[in-house]
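Team,

Forwarding the record for the chain on the shared tracking sheet. I've put the sequence and predicted structure together so nobody has to dig through attachments.
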Amino acid sequence: MANVQGIRVYREIGATPPPVASEEHAPIVIVGAGPVGLAMALDLGRRGQPVVLVTRFDFIAHASKAICFSKRSLDILDRLGVGDAALDKGVMWNVGKVFWGDNPEPVYQFDMLPVKGQKRPGFINIQQYYIEEYLYEALVKLPNVDIRWGHTLQAMTPLNDGVALRIETADGDYDLHAEWLLACDGSRSTVRDLLGLDFEGRVFEDNFLIADIRMKREMESERRFWFDPPFNPGKSALMHRQPDDVWRLDFQLGWDIDRKAAIQPENVEPYVRAMLGDDVEFEREWYSVYTFQCRRMARFVHGRTIFVGDSAHLVSPFGARGCNGGFADVDNLGWKLDLVLRGAAGEDLIESYNDEAIETADENILNSTRSTDFLTPKSTASRALRDAVLELAADHPFARPFVNSGRLSTAVSYARSTLSTPDRDDWEGGIAPGQPVTDAPLDGGWLLEALGGDFALLANDWAGPVPDGVRTIAVDGVAAARLGLPEGAACLVRPDQYIAARWKTPRAEDVDMALTRAKGGAACLH
């Protein structure tokens, strides 16, 4: 594979010529063509919005980044039309096992899909560049999306009605006025730097080695994690299977190391052979070292500039909350910006993205921080507590939830959302406002497929009138049971498949008011 600027190339695309006009106007400009930027463009493009996406690279990189994609992300990719491609290529898994010391039996194992009978598994493993390719292939079919490869953001000026951008290309520069600028340009965000903004949070004093290797090996498709294994004593290790006979091995190294020396083959291979055996045959795919970070911006919305994904927040890789958290941002923002641009909602609706995306980021950071503290105890007392939990977990179920090898990404509930209508009825169970819909079989298909990406009213034997733009979908059986809807009940679902309101005995005016509130209207102010 070719290398460009020291980066391996997975797929060459080539630079896009600059526009003929030296000045342009666009309703939406997205900066960054990683998985989050591409998914953001696809979400808005499928809603009919004209989008310009600029990226400084003119290729899809062959790098070892995200590999674990959660059930919620798979549901989002389904809505974007690329879920089947991801599932066809990816390695599906639901079970994770945790080992301690030299015990060959796990002290604890967990299931990432405890509620069975859903379309998608708990997780798949697949290299990030495949996801990017699937998103790109879907985007090139949309005439309203203009991807500009090899176009670099050079300068920007926030304005009352948007953002003035200066774009640099090898064949000349041009000016671009964006009504809305979406920063999807990653942890080293140019947009964030140009605005003089920064992260807040913690950087943990530890380093971890990623060794992606290619080898033939028969093993269950499951997550395997070790505390204090004999092949990395006093530290931790992780193993994941990927497509194409690629395996991800992750080794805790400690804080005071030579990072450049740590990724040299002669220093990586002893770790690999200690884990897998001296006679293992493998090829190097990718070696790198990373440091845990749990940080975010104070705000994600700055006027007409909106930060999405790693440009807004960072978490440690354990728990797979990085790219999955970015897809959650895309899912939250796309329908809101679409309504604003169509004049169906006021700009105040964008503030709810700031609030809900921060709520998601904070939960991910909290879980990631707790995982890191459990993985890397910094005192004798904290290590003794961790080891006691591991010892108890082997025989005592009550201790197993305390074993933290990286709480894995699941959909976050918006407990404080101003878009949700509080329950007026007494409910036992079910899915409350601010929580995502759980998939279920429905009429030979699936509930989430039926929802699509619009407002919908899920009704169990209720047929009252609904406002324009809301579809009524009849549910019964398993779907009604999972929603917790008794006969005659209904719930309003947002375009991102979160519950906005529910009623045991709905009235047409209830649905209308809840819809107004879910669009950020006057009702959410009371």
